[in-house]
Write a structure and sequence with these properties.
single chain, 405 residues, 18 strands
């Protein structure tokens, strides 16, 4: 085992993520390659300057356009919308690993009297008529519904019956999202869109412990370097300290992950063994660390563990979208600004879609950041890319409250 500096840890994570040096991910193929590397990217329906999944891709995929993600999801069908780290987008090839998710959904659904008949009715209608949303599926009334992704015995919320049945069949794996119209989801039969070989494949994990280890491995790969402590990067997993340590030990013993010490930290850090070449290139000074500026999504894999970000970068980030306006320190939808291996500030840039103009409503530099010509040029280039990503032809800088500090 060896020790690396905080700066080397930062540079390794950013190199792994494709956020420093020359672009490693390019175009639609690059977008798919990045999702495969990350395992999953979080979905959030809020669209201020792009949805979270789109923002995640635009920061590291050269030439990314929003239509590319839609094609990968709903034309090429190599990605799927499903639960993982909350609502997520992940490779369709990973479908067999989530067999236990779907089995659990079916078992819980079986405990609800009358649900089976509603499911059969919905499937028959979709078989004959094609994709539906909750407004077009002819199932009337309300039923008690506990959550948007899992049934339970605690039926404490009323919901439109059609919506609940579609959500249940979707969680069961009988349906997939066919497309979205704004935030409205249209569902169709999974067998029409996913290969039979994928749908019928055996679960590669023999038990829940193996599945948990696989997910831990995937989350480490998504971030690049994770510590042996409670982490928001493991959200959505039944993972206490004992289970985490057991999973890490199992992965390390099979050389799928490797431990490393970071100066100034007591917990061990782990990275995927397949990424050893990236780390070694950092250590011997041969990595491409040419800086470029990127605007990072609020739920980007890089930002999953905000305690880790604070510890390694001295950057404190809070997504203030749900914070009352009078209590916000920054803006409604503020994105971290990454330049080189530092977080240099945060920005609120909102497209005026009617005027076709990207308006910078707020720009806050981190303490100690010097606004050099090189930095301002990088910011201008990043803004032009961000404007194009949001289909804007121009940019306007409002009076920004930011400055040093």
């Amino acid at each position: 085992m060896f020790t690396i500096t905080r700066q080397q840890a930062r540079q390794f994570i950013l190199s792994k993520q494709g956020l420093i040096g020359a672009y490693r991910f390019i175009g639609k193929d690059g977008a798919y390659a990045y999702v495969r590397q990350a395992g999953c990217i979080q979905f959030d329906p809020v669209d201020v300057c792009g949805k979270n999944a789109e923002l995640t891709l635009q920061s590291r995929v050269k030439g990314f356009q929003k239509s590319m993600l839609q094609e990968l999801l709903y034309q090429d069908r190599v990605l799927v919308d499903y639960a993982d780290k909350e609502l997520s987008i992940w490779p369709a090839e990973d479908w067999p690993y989530f067999s236990s998710y779907r089995d659990r959904s079916r078992r819980l659904g079986d405990t609800f009297e009358g649900l089976e008949a509603l499911k059969e009715k919905a499937l028959a209608y979709i078989q004959e008529h094609g994709p539906v949303c909750s407004d077009t599926l002819p199932i009337e009334g309300e039923i008690f519904w506990h959550s948007s992704m899992h049934w339970s015995g605690n039926w404490d919320k009323k919901s439109q019956a059609a919506r609940s049945v579609l959500e249940q069949l979707y969680t069961d794996g009988e349906l997939v999202i066919h497309h979205k119209n704004g935030s409205r989801k249209y569902y169709d039969l999974a067998r029409r869109h996913l290969p039979e070989a994928v749908l019928q494949a055996e679960n590669p994990c023999k038990n829940e412990e193996e599945f948990l280890s696989w997910r831990v491995l995937r989350r480490i790969g998504a971030v690049g370097l994770l510590w042996d402590k409670n982490s928001a990067a493991f959200l959505g997993m039944d993972l206490n300290a004992e289970k985490r340590k057991r999973a890490l030990a199992s992965l390390a013993s099979s050389d799928r992950i490797r431990p490393v010490l970071v100066e100034g930290f007591k917990p061990l850090f782990y990275y995927r063994s397949e990424d050893d070449a990236i780390l070694q290139s950092i250590l011997v000074g041969q990595a491409d660390l040419k800086p470029r500026m990127s605007f990072i999504a609020p739920l980007d894999p890089l930002m999953w563990d905000k305690a880790l970000i604070l510890s390694l970068w001295d950057f404190r980030y809070s997504w203030e979208i749900y914070t009352p306006a009078d209590k916000r320190r920054y803006g409604y939808y503020t994105l971290p600004m990454l330049y080189g291996d530092r977080f240099v500030g945060r920005i609120e840039a909102v497209p005026d879609r009617r005027e076709g103009v990207l308006r910078v409503k707020g720009l806050w530099w981190e303490p100690g950041v010097r606004q050099t010509k090189k930095l301002n040029t990088a910011l201008e280039q990043a803004l032009r890319r961000f404007a194009a990503f949001n289909n804007c032809q121009g940019m306007e800088m409002d009076h920004c409250p930011g400055g040093e500090g």
